[in-house]
Amino acid sequence: xxxxxxxxxxYKSFPxxxxxxxxxxxxxxxxxxALMGENGAGKSTLMKILMGIYKADQGSIFLEGEETVIHxxxxxxxxxxxxxxxxxxxxxxxxxxENVFVGRELLKKGMEKLKIVDIARMREETGRYxxxxxxxxxxxxxxxxxxxxxxxxxxxxxAISLNSKIIVMDEPTSAxxxxxxxxxxxxxERLKKQGVAIIYISHKMDEIFRISDTITVLRDGQxxxxxxxxxxxxDMLIKMMVGRExxxxxxxxxxxxxxxxxxxxxxxxxxxxxxxxxxxxxxEVLGIAGxxxxxxxxxVETIFGLYPKxxxxxxxxxxxxxxxxxxxxxxxxxxLITEDRKQTGLNLIVSVKENIASVSxxxxxxxxxxxxxxxxxxxxxxxxxxxxxxxxxxxxVGNLSGGNQQKVxxxxxxxxxxxxxxxxxxxRGIDIGAKRDIYLLINNLAKEGKAVIVISSExxxxxxxxxxxxxxxxxRINGEVRREEFSQEVIMxxxxxxxxxxxx
Length: 504
Hints:
This protein is 32% helix and 25% strand.
């Protein structure tokens, strides 16, 4: 048996959109097969066909040489296929252990007929998986108390615990830092040795070349090529993906940095943020780095008023402000692009133009009546400026690719003309072309005199686009690194609490 999985001549269309056209994917047992392409290339649709979420219009699926039909995710699971989804599929009001075993709950021995769930055994098994993968999460914690990164780790553990023959990993490291990713890569090596086939989707080039044996590229729903990873390099792969060369991935112009616009003094939020002090200037791009649980998102959420501070002060233009909620932050010309666009950034069931207008609806109304003409005008402006791939402003935002959804979130906030823009994982799960568009946008915002904060788990990204980086560890700002001093070793030293522990 040469291939454990073959998807042959797959076609799929949605109303008005051809998504896949004659795509074939062949995967060997014990290999990491990277599936690459820009957002909208058809990668996720192809995997949803494999999982039985969508039915192909044409084409066949073969498992271990036998043609099969997959009737849904549960059927896929029974056939030895599991998937770590890019968009988290967690049940927020259930325990971590219950999420790991959802749909396959362990029953109390001797009481199987009564269907009594053995929660203690599920917690014990989950704890064992966590210890094996060096993950520090309480199996009894409610999912909603976890960060996005911790939820992603739970999803990874859930997929690995299924003992599948084929595991699809769709952007598994999009919300976790390099330290957590290294733990995943160790598990991938272990799975390979056991003969498990892994289909790996990621926009992080360094990961792809680090772990992949084979790479298949899709572009605009069509198969472009399949090659051994060792026969490709960054430039060749980008050219296959986008159809052209893409130079200067991290565009960074020299920008005149102006006066201090934001000053944070001794800000605290319980143990999550402790005694944080820093300043931010006009035209500056300030990075915030750190490991999962370091308090990066919690710091900016506190500044933005999503959670009450327990101590400290916030100053804008030299005057103390009291930001009690997000409405106060918006009035003070601040914007927060959150790390989870699906849950907190967008209303997925309404149109692109309605999402773009949502923060600035007051400006787009006349005497309390929404002005549709204005909404159409501004949405078309931002669709064009940000290169949002959508049929028009009336398209439902949930039908767009991840990168284009992220651009809609950006448009929503830019329309409000903020002075301070906070990006929390701005390129999570989006392709190299869309990433560069967002880097260019950040660059242009700095040129316009906006003050920008960027939280990122990608070291290359935060070093590529920022003027200065604050590094957090255990709720504290542990160090500050200026652009001329940037190095992964210095940043990881502060992040791991190796380099001291005091704020500079």
